[in-house]
């Protein structure tokens, strides 16, 4: 029988991006066909597990015994969550130990990668790690990826898409390493107590429930039972205590600060007027925003309107900051849904206030459940690195083509929200934000409704309803092309960046289709 | 091809019970081989689900619309939980509606059946319902089963075994009907608010997560999001509001009463002395008892000892009563694990006290997880209808052979606990409790350590360690045969009951093997 190798063919996403139909180290490419093209009957995968009879202990002596028990072999996929953010010690600790054992060819499925994970670069160079799947990647690892230092292309997912991939079986995990600020001797875990407290553990839930093996790594081992319990003993095989799982300074910021930059404040004010004019600022409304200065300024403007008009919202969601906690405490929202605490105030509130509720990444944004929280969002405030004239947004790469982030919850919330507003300066570092073509498409334009800049506001032409409402106001509306021209008059038209043909990362939309790829920088 | 029908063969469990190797309407019989014979690599089944995109509503107009949407057909399995106990309106309401539609041949997978479910008897007679799976059955349905009124033999499981069966795929559920004291418009559910508040919803979790379709039936529909959330929107397809899901009088008892019967108090005192002498009453200890008068009296005796000696236990578990709440509040336990609230005080405590923690039936007792709560139990106080001289316990049938209960958590906790003590009067209704052969084996003797009666205490000979410890005390120890003789001297030896050969119920051990069968009464 003749072994016919099918030649690689170029195919197009619905947004016109050209992709190969097969990518070495990734597999068959399912091109993006629209935000809601892949719904309907879905499944959660079967899970194999070792049942634990009475009298079996779960606490192991040390990481070495844990790695023995876990039988980690070349080629396995091991997972990590990012709740310890830029203070995380666990990923480095585990990888160093595995590297010393001579393990090769691992795939790291981490919900996010931060600058603290710089040692991963060496493991990539030595092929200890040859695959990486993450929702957000910043720092030296992102740069190394862009330089082609990982053997296989990285896979960049969304927060909801990662939960979907794990639960559906698209991303099988051999061992989930759970950094646990508190764990009891039988594997019940919470993130609210202990010296490395980080708050909710929303991004770790799918890992714990669907990995073949799950181990809690803690620096606060408590007697059974832990209280509260965020991740449950029935999903945890082993527990190991280490000196430190993280550096508190990198885990949370002390306080949440709202920007004082007058341009950002103007953008926030305009965004608030857009929200108000949309008719969505009313009792029962829901809202999400990021932790950046401008995003928080939008929340502050919204709070003013809500207080003035006596509006009580249903919930605010996402990664939670002290600012949203204050809005909860002031009665502006009835509840918070928290997948990740950004600061100490959020951790305390989540620990003490029953209305500050937990959500897993799956509940947050997995499109293949019976309805994620993002589906109930009214207003979402988004950031952007670049936007094209079809409203497609890039938050994955910088204008130089180097990876500097990723979707996180960007695509998930944009898809769910009734009104997704991008707030951004029209120019950043003397470069215009709006382009004919973004370097990388992270979030499709069909889910981006409004762009608010200090110079003007552009409404997605699909949203004729919004155009109607907002054209009755004095808001500085422009077409996106006009907005682009305003910037280009000042900055000039930037030269397109040049990349090699080599694909270094695949950008998966939340449903697992490929919305774009990132190529090696020259 | 010749179709050979394999003749039915009789096989034996490890306890010597004779069973057919195949039972019509049930299937192949896996005979019980010992409490821990079936551990090791297990699996949770894959789940198919309809993903819910944004803008799809879950609230349906009424039950009729719900039944239309759910497309319930002849032969399906529909499930119910029993948190509304003898006040539950939901099972009857749904079955009446389905019967009116002419649906036949349903299997009801209810965690328990109570006297209020009497209308089910007519549905059995009319073959609207031909199968029943439950962990506990009392009242007219139990009697009707014993009379052979259900077409197929009923399957009687344990609380942990039911969760195992659902999660493993042994008990596939087409539609789970969740009686929801509070539900929001997107399917988040709790049991602590609303006129039909029942507390935790621990027995409903596996149903919600593993059924092909899940619907919340509520009489307290609240705006999104509910708070707290016990069962999560990502598992719920539809929500429907009805006038009433239950009668509060039948849902919870107002207060928990400890027996004043001097015989029961003597048993409790003896049981407490056994516990103390066992060496298990010490800091970190864990404890579970039932809600009956004698069981609570044991808790009261234990509380006295703990206070006297300054013992702080780790947790008490199970169905929770106000009495255990008081022990928590007095600092005698650090935490409660609650699968079901028995009274108003328990509901309030569960609602307001973070140390009063939720557990699902799976976390409670499923033997095929990475470790259920029962695995960490030190002392378990059990009831019994009959006990044989091998310490096998019957809580399924009365001495007349009629079904009057079932394991519930009996077998689960007995298997997990370090010390499982049966407390019982030596005679009940002029009949001796201890027999050569119990009518039905619910819990295997290998997991029953001590029997405490008002006339004497028998220790399972397997527990030589306990015998050593207790023989140093003044406790009235006897062999189980001696204890049996004491009773028989008073009551005489009761005549063995006669039954027909027809099997009306199959008693499944928690691992899904068959530990006994119940035959039709004559």
UniProtKB/TrEMBL annotation, chains A, B:
Enzyme Commission numbers on file: 2.8.3.10, 4.1.3.6
InterPro entries: Citrate_lyase_asu (IPR006472), NagB/RpiA_transferase-like (IPR037171)
Biological processes annotated in GO: acetyl-CoA metabolic process
A GO cellular component entry from the record: cytoplasm
Cell compartment(s), UniProt: Cytoplasm
Catalytic activity entry: citrate = oxaloacetate + acetate; citrate + acetyl-CoA = (3S)-citryl-CoA + acetate
Keywords for this protein: Cytoplasm, Lyase, Transferase
GO MF term set: citrate (pro-3S)-lyase activity; citrate CoA-transferase activity
Primary location: cytoplasm
NCBIfam families assigned: citF
UniProt-recorded name of the protein: Citrate lyase alpha chain
Organism from which the protein derives: Desulfosporosinus metallidurans
